[in-house]
Amino acid sequence: MARGRPHPPDRTGALAEAAGETPHYHGHRERLRARFAQGDTLPDYEFLELVLFRSIPRRDVKPIAKALIQRFGSFAEVITAPAELLMETDGIGPAVVADLKILEAAGRRLARGAVAERPLLSSWSAVIDYCRAAMAFAPREEFRILFLDKRNRLIADEVQGRGTVDHTPVYPREVVRRALELSATALILVHNHPSGDPTPSQADIRMTRDIVGAAEPLGIVVHDHIVVGREGHASFKGLKLI
Fold it and tell me: Region (Disordered) spans which residues (predicted)?
């Protein structure tokens, strides 16, 4: 398969347009747009088609959308997939990848907007949504920290480390040092499991307790440690692990 190669328009559609005819996929596009406007719940591949309509204006995009969903699994996994993997799909070039990555960034901004400037503990579902949007589909483990002030409002959201598919090194002293630099009085720890299963490992549990032990004498509270994955999320507080 070509990697990042520009792709010509669908030849059948181009011939139809040259003959003054309407390509067959134009009617499909209008019907799909109408269903979306009416509030129909579209399957992931059709929702992806809506996005690709603008990115690929002169080609039947249904086969491309279906191929992407088949390979990556879901709409969310498509838009968060690495660019080089996306471009291994026939029909996907740099311009299409750029459009998909704009969508990914927009989703993160929307999720972040729901948790900014408000006490996070009073909008817990928004916190979970934000964490999942930010990292649930990342191909490698990431460890991030939400630093909170005394009113539990977000001061900063920082990725402290990126690792392999199943491990990220975390240093409790560095976590506490950064909290002191930001004058944070509380933390929410977050990391992802690229395997999809958010069940905490024994290493996760040990690391979390080490951070709690380092933070507590300095008056810094660890509210929770959230593990996110494609299959959902797990809360250390909910599991009574802290």
Answer: 1-24
